[in-house]
Please model this.
Amino acid sequence: MQEMVKVVVDAMGGDNAPAEIVRGAVDAVNKRNDIKVILTGKQKDIEDQLQKYTYPKEQIEIVCASEVIETAEPPVKAIRSKKDSSIVVGMNLVKKGQADAFVSAGSSGAILVGGQLIVGRIKGIERPPLAPLIPTKNGAALLVDCGANVDARPSHLVQFAKMGATYMEHVVGIKNPKVGIVNIGAEEEKGNALVKETFPLLKQCTDINFIGSVEARDIPYGICDVIVCEAFVGNVILKLYEGVGAVLISKVKQGMMTTLRSKIGAMLVKPALKKTLKAFDAGQYGGAPLLGLNGLVVKAHGSSKANEITNSIIQCVQFKQQQINEKIREKIMMQEN
Amino acid sequence: MQEMVKVVVDAMGGDNAPAEIVRGAVDAVNKRNDIKVILTGKQKDIEDQLQKYTYPKEQIEIVCASEVIETAEPPVKAIRSKKDSSIVVGMNLVKKGQADAFVSAGSSGAILVGGQLIVGRIKGIERPPLAPLIPTKNGAALLVDCGANVDARPSHLVQFAKMGATYMEHVVGIKNPKVGIVNIGAEEEKGNALVKETFPLLKQCTDINFIGSVEARDIPYGICDVIVCEAFVGNVILKLYEGVGAVLISKVKQGMMTTLRSKIGAMLVKPALKKTLKAFDAGQYGGAPLLGLNGLVVKAHGSSKANEITNSIIQCVQFKQQQINEKIREKIMMQEN
Model:
């Protein structure tokens, strides 16, 4: 029998916790029999939700945690002081090897800090980046780093490129993924100090398919599979994607409602349009993995519904079965030798 | 009689030069009698275009320039060696006070370098930023800096904020414009080193309406009127705006063409939709001013058609009549005292 992948899920994290989180966990185990979910959080709250559903009981377990880390709390202090929070308890299970992965829609800061302090980095990894998939014209690209390490150094970006390429190849299934660095022009001499220093280092990497600079304009067209950038820039890219997308869709809707003629047209267009636009919605991919840790940590959107939690949990299976961390470890060791 | 505003237009710059540039100039003088356009470039090429149109002859003049700076040329070298290029000749007219403004769709690098080396900075201005208007849900916002000064310092960003606010107030007509700094979270303690250092300096400025950090997600909603950021980030914002917009529109079109039902709907929706989406197109605003120079320099898109050139020329009138540079000079002097 196939080995079970054990995924801890923070039942208390996110705007829609615990209801949507628990539902997401139930949906995941109902879909796949190779997943065991461990829900951390307040026992009573979790049980109240679980009793609504039918699911294979042996695939969901509760581990109690009496505290909750709120979004506004300073992350380092929260991780250190709230030892019995759903995040700290959950991450400790991964640390002790009692689980393979941890999924949370809770405080980004606490997840990033906890990932480093509790789960810990793979030996040789300098900084673990947050790496969400973002939609492109005909697929998706991995954005590393989208917010974990501001003011990163060139050596960090090189590791981001390697880890990102490993993820895209083995989790998403893109053969020899194209890696690009975000720049303000296509030429090698363009850029800020960080990009100018990083560019030649990436060119020297024989274990990735580095295609050079990519301009932000070309990212949505899917010009590369792994988009390497410093966290401040990555965060701007991720959030502007969401913002421009949302405003433009609202403009399209508004435009369709301006005349009687267009209103009739809108009714006819709606179903087909909805389907196409869904392909351009970031939510479908589940959360963003924090790469380079001794175990997988996935950060889901704070606004996650059950569907994103389910996708985040299922993502962990591929990550574990493809032995992504072992592959990252190998790449980093080769780099050091 | 109202004083004429003299605008030099680089007839040789951009993908559609000289045809669209000359047509844009003709349209501008046909629209307004307070503008005089001086076209710089190859006399024969310009005359061949001009003879196609009817316009008040006294409002367009040609000043010969035998050379053209190509986009791929290293900017500093090009500005120094091609003394008889349409850009250098045109900028010299502004420098000597024979014209008020210079508009070009040519090489960005050459325009930025020429602006500093030939036209020169206003005394006290450390770095002149490129400041395009970008569309928002119900209007437009000024993005400073979108590409002129990578790796800027906090004092530069403070000047960008002041110049941007002056522009939005007096050229675009937004009373007491809201100024925000691009950040990766709304809280004051968030950000990279540059933003953390700049934030308190902006808070101290009593002459601008600083609203704090803005996340990229909120920019398209029009959360502020002046968006302050370092050039690398600004360039990513500008280009991602274009990229996400273009891909999403193509997705909408594709979605509308998937079924017979949706195709019929598309025909009905099209006119209304086109109008709404036009409001979200950056081209309508004309080029981006390079703020803080002794005279106005406007960089139009390389792909500019006549319409963008006309809008860029007309923008110069408002800039001159509102005495933007005098207002910037005052603000900077107050800062120094």
Notes: Residues 231-256 of chain A form the longest helix (26 residues). The mean pLDDT of chain A is 92.
